[in-house]
Amino acid sequence: MKKIFFQILLFVSPFFVGLSDSQAQQDAQFSQYMFNQQYLNPAVVGLDTNFIHAGLIYRQQWLGYKATFDDGGAPSSTVLSINAPIKRLKSGVGLHVVYDVIGPVTNTEIQLSYAYHISIKNGRLSFGLRAGMYNQSTDFSKFRPVDSDDPLLSNTGRINQFVPDFAFGVYFSKPNYYIGASMNHLAESDIKYATSFTFSSLKQSLNITGGYNLTINENITLMPSALVKTVLSNISNTLSYEATLLGNFETRARNNIYLGVGFRDLAPTNDLVFLLGANNLLKDNSLSIGYAFDYVLNGSTAKAPTSHEIRMGYRLPAPKRYERNIIRTPRFRF
């Protein structure tokens, strides 16, 4: 299976070059994607059969950025997720909520995921489905139309619209590596705000993730990972990738401290990413925290140079399968 894994990486690697025409993705972006895979792929929910996992990530893009006029402001994104295994059905369920603010536009999504897991030797092959609602809200009072009679900008207040949203994912994992792919926004819903004009559309997008755990010794593990994203209707202009290397160090208290560095290509913007965090905190190893710092290397026009992201995760023991207690009596025991 390792051979297949590396063959897939070799197949994907040609897409990692020649991205000078790439544009920003339509979905919220997070540098700590390796700790937020439920947001990317529904097939991962319930993979850990021993715990219920909850997580929260908040990202402030281009901190300190000020618009040329009005209140404008830099983008900010929040994702809250929870998932749990269903051992009896060899599956899992998950729920995540995203709140993404980009100037006058606010995107909110509530998504429910279900995954089925198939054991294959020492690994598991997972298939996931996701369904939910996507809401886009626009504050038209923040626009400055060139033509005051423009019918597209005739509204002066905030208007929102809910549309259905669906996704499908597949994921293969073993103790030392994983690889997965997901198709998002399958319905390709249009945002029209009850008009005949399409203000925006949710285009079908593809996410490919992969990662590997390389044990150096009993205390140090290297964890490279990668994420490739694109909108299928316009691959040449939306293809992007990011690669990250984390070094995990186990302390005497059995906590795990990690440091990492990453690179993101969203041409013409390139970012350098630094990560810091800790897992297995508290007496029951239930808490994890993390921080990511992004620095814009180029393409920083109309942006502030730095972005910041904080993460918190918590896990609870999954409910054990109910087993009826056997009651014995001396009268009927031989």
What features would you describe in this structure?
The protein is mostly beta strands. The protein has a domain at 28-208 and 278-320. 6% of the residues lie in helices and 53% in strands. The protein contains three helices and 17 strands. Strand 4 (105-120) and strand 5 (123-139) form a beta hairpin. Mean pLDDT is 84; it is low at 1-24.
Element order, helices and strands? HHEEEEEEEEEEEEHEEEEE
Tally of alpha and pi helices: 3
Helix content: under 10%
How would you state the average pLDDT, rounded?
84
State the shape.
globular
How many strands, which pairing sense, and closed or not: the largest β-sheet?
14 strands, antiparallel, barrel
Q: Give the uncertain stretches in residue-range form.
A: 1-24
Distance between the termini: 53 Å
Report the radius of gyration as a whole number of Å: 22 Å
How is the largest sheet built, in terms of strand order? 1-2-3-4-5-6-7-10-12-13-14-15-16-17
Question: Total number of β-strand segments?
Answer: 17
Report the structural category. Answer: mainly beta
Please indicate the percent range of residues in DSSP E strands (runs of 2 or more): over 45%
